[in-house]
Amino acid sequence: MITSLLIANRGEIACRIIRTARRLGIRTVAVYSDADAKALHVRQADEAVHIGPSPARESYLVGDRIIAAAKATGAEAIHPGYGFLSENADFAQAVIDAGLIWVGPKPASIRAMGLKDAAKKLMAEAGVPVTPGYLGEDQSPDRLQAEADAIGYPVLIKAVAGGGGKGMRRVESAAEFQDALTSCKREAASSFGDDRVLIEKYILSPRHIEVQVFGDAHGNIVHLFERDCSLQRRHQKVIEEAPAPGFDDALRQVVCDAAVKAARAVDYVGAGTIEFIADASQGLRGDRVWFMEMNTRLQVEHPVTEEITGQDLVEWQLRVASGEPLPKRQDELEIDGWAMEARLYAEDPAKGFLPSIGRLEAFELGRGVRIDTGVGEGAEVSPFYDPMVAKLIAHGGDRDEARTQLAEALEETVVWPVRTNAGFLVKALEHPDFVGGTLDTGLIAREGEALMPDAAPSHTALANVARALAVQPLAGFRLNAQPRRELVVAVDGEPHRVAFEPDANDGSLFTATAASDPVIFSEAGQSWLVEPYRASGKAGGAVGDGAIMAPMPGRIIAVEVAAGASVTKGQKLVTLEAMKMEHTLTAPFDGMVAELNATTGAQVSEGTLLVRVEAGG
To answer: Which of 191, 238, 473, 547 is least buried, going by the fewest C-beta atoms within 10 A?
Structure first.
């Protein structure tokens, strides 16, 4: 067994790996950037090494520094986690060449599955069904447009080196294709250093099904059943579950057997996931499930598989990397109950899901579920990395029990002042289509408004808070009846007049004079700060409608206009990259660019004036 392990990652997955390594008696080494100097994974590891500045491309993506850190600390092996360098075949080979153990698949397997077009060709040759599309070498815009036209819209443009929803665009018509292609290629080049794309037929009622596979160096390959990851927003998984709703034993065998066949085709060793797309328009059928791609690493959603099988997949990785055979045979694995995972993101649904950054003054996650996180109260959520701050995983006897446990845990979650998607997740879990298991990947896009959390707390919740705030006695004043009280409170700075009945213990000696301390509370996953409203302290000075401000810290990757240019409402002005996502800022009305402060490549702070548009022009 490996005795010392460097974890080439950060956040919750680094903490997750440390937890298993500690149980197995393995010494752990963390690496960290400037932004992560005080991070939880740094504190939990036995040793930690600084590897560079905050941007990932200058720290977590610099393989030479990570290998040097492993050698300097005497680490025997490197675990890449997921993201960053986890599917970089050159890095995997460099680790091996340095005399270290790579906790992952063979570099050749990573290369074989790393490019989506080549992987699909390989799978087709191995007898694994693949989705219809264009995988050709000719990447000219005209050829790609012609292929998309021939396939028929809608189509999906996907970066051949992509993953995690990056470098992917759905295109509804020929008129939209070139703009989508340009944006997709730019994002692919930025995220993966490769702007090549493939074109796929877009399935109108798609289910995203994936199978956990595992291989060892002795030729054994097993599957650990399927997961359903169909609930997605902009191709990013939101809620995952295992097993998949609507799967019977016959369908499970067809899909899982295809996954094992795919893994054998690349002589796979270690943890991997075979992703399929299923057309659910006519019900789930074995002949309408197609291979999409293989992720040659551990997945974010691996905990749901762990919960239904009782297996620790990180332990499996470490044992296989140490040369041991798989801990279980296929006939020793079975499904126990149902598991469901929600990804808690630091983002604000009310502002188009823009990432939310800052210090976690309050960070209390719900009870009764498994929590995987890399932050705690007092931690900083920075703009440099993925905005996921935690995963909540519920395990129950059946699907509804797991769903209910997860929803209750999210409802209890309190995070402040950083915004999260907890309220959105609660709404999604309670949506009738999700409850009934009739979901597909378009559910969130179709039901977006219905899934948005409430803009303000309920009157009942505010009345309870107002009652708690009304604590100052009014000397010499008493009425015979219990009066109804009113208090003006500020909810996130906005005034609300709240009527409430005093608590029975208050008698009539209490009036609506607020306590000095604000109250932070949660309702249906939404966190609120309530305090006495003081009109004189309210901030003013709204920004004019024509001022286009940076909604968050980020890097400008495209400037689409010039000073003095005429623009129309909705026209692209500037594209900002933050937390690994592109955010396009558009003209609020027809007019002229009166001021332009945006330069491609520049790093900007939240609130920076980028463009000012004057009406008319």
So the answer is: 473
Distances (CA, A) of 400 to 145, 208, 316, 340, 344: 45, 20, 29, 10, 20
The one-letter code for the residue type at 300 is: V
> Which helix (H) or strand (E) element contains residue 61?
none
Structure tokens at 563: 């000073």
Active-site residue, from 297, 403, 419, 612: 297
Q: Which residues pair with 615 in a beta bridge?
A: 591
HSE at residue 168, side-chain half, CA atoms within 13 A, is 15
What is the b/e burial string over 85-121, where b = at least 16 CB atoms within 10 angstroms of the residue's CB? bbbbbebbbbbeeeebbbbbbbbebbbbbbbbbebbe
> What is the DSSP code string of 554-569?
EEEEEE---TT-EE-T
Summarised one tens digit per residue, pLDDT across range 82-124 is 999 999 999 999 999 999 999 999 999 999 998 877 888 899 9
Closest CA to 171 of 159, 184, 161, 186: 184
116: nearest Cα among 94, 103, 138, 131: 131
Torsion of CA 187, 188, 193, 196, to 10 degrees: -140
Q: Is 297 a catalytic residue?
A: yes
Name the stretches of the chain with pLDDT < 70: 164, 470-485, 493, 502-517, 533-545, 579-580, 617
Q: Quick one: fold of 206-451?
A: D-amino Acid Aminotransferase; Chain A, domain 1 (3.30.470)
Query: Which three-class secondary structure state does DSSP give residue 542?
Result: coil
Residue 77's DSSP bridge partners are 5, 101
Tokens of 375: 């932050």
Please state the φ and ψ torsions of residue 51, each to the nearest 5 degrees. Answer: -125, 5
Yes or no: is domain 547-615 CATH 3.20.20.140?
A: no
* 4-103 maps to CATH 3.30.1490.20: no
